[in-house]
Amino acid sequence: MSDPGRRRAVPAGRSAPGEVTRERILDAALDTLRAEGFLGTTARSIARTGGFNQALVFYHFGSVDEVLLSAVERMSQRRLDTYRGRLAEAPDLPGIVAVAREVLAEDVQRGAITVLSQLVAGAHGRVEFSRRLAASFDPWIDLVDEAVQRVLAGTGLATVVPSRDVAVAMTGTFVGVELLGQLDPESGRVEALLATLDTTAGLLQGLLALFGSASSSPAAAEASEG
Amino acid sequence: MSDPGRRRAVPAGRSAPGEVTRERILDAALDTLRAEGFLGTTARSIARTGGFNQALVFYHFGSVDEVLLSAVERMSQRRLDTYRGRLAEAPDLPGIVAVAREVLAEDVQRGAITVLSQLVAGAHGRVEFSRRLAASFDPWIDLVDEAVQRVLAGTGLATVVPSRDVAVAMTGTFVGVELLGQLDPESGRVEALLATLDTTAGLLQGLLALFGSASSSPAAAEASEG
DNA sequence: GTCTATAATACGATAGAC
DNA sequence: GTCTATCGTATTATAGAC
What we know:
Chain A has helices at 19-36, 43-50, 55-61, 64-88, 93-110, 112-122, 127-152, 163-183, 189-213, 218-225.
């Protein structure tokens, strides 16, 4: 292994030697995943995309898997920061829905969901790869979970609805719909889903308001009996 | 191309020559997709799973893609028949939900969703493969669409909710959650989702009953304004 | 219809020159 | 740190014996 390992400290404002190349490799890896899918993302295709030599992938990351995981971890972290920032500024339900729709639309357009979907599919049956990939999904599910709990708070449904499962379902929905949407890009499935989110949000708002003002209504009681 | 092409007619009750092998290959293809994922499903691994020679895949189907598409089309058709039959016997809402949960649980357990998820992921960027795979999803979305419309009928929501988009979202959700669930099989995400379906169904029932008995309520009007 | 053998190609990864 | 060259191995697909 010729991993550069821990490097000397570098003057502030200056990049560590090779750091530029590392970033280029990560960028190229994401671009390739978006354009070619998991199957088409090899050390050679990544190098072709980024315009550098194939051997650099192994010099800097040791393996293709390590590049992909590093790339998705970096992407996930960056997007998560964006989400948290915007959500903090929109504490009520309409605000949360608006932010969620807005940032999810960005993710879809940037191809972030494509990257995640492709990696998830490619992770099949590979234990260590799956473990690390799952770890980069957890903070997202946590974030959705928090938002769901905030929305449910004071509606009388907080004890009935398992918010974590709902969060998993919502996260999974975007992965699945994006995958389905790419099967037939002409169909505009993803766009339809995003557009429908507004309608659904309006509906949900009305329903939750109903539950909020009558949290021990017959419907709620009936529902909790399951 | 050494495709056997159209074959002579065969006495009823008897299989056409090579038909047994064709079926074995399709079975092996699905088993391999379940066990190894899309990446691990090659002509050689399919042959290894089924205990036959690798060259037979090309003799009978011409290419690996053709085996996979034929296999999923056969599977989709068979499952669709099962769905339709059971749904016909359960015309009301509780019945529909029960059947849906039941048959979906079967699909998950048999690995049908895994097969679909893997193929969808592997189809990325391959136009003709995607087109045919999308075609085998359409009847499913149609079926879900019909069920959604039946549930919505008479609730006053039929004109507000775009049932087709909801159907796409529901279909996509199962694909996505299944993929996410396989990232960390220990987490029991898929099982949790299915278990939660009952609770959600109960809730939904209560909500729809509410809308049904007051289809021009303030909440409904507010929701339709978006 | 099923087999063996093989051609042509792509891959991950490494060695070693610079 | 980046390059060329290469090893070993996997793949799809085909040719041809049986």
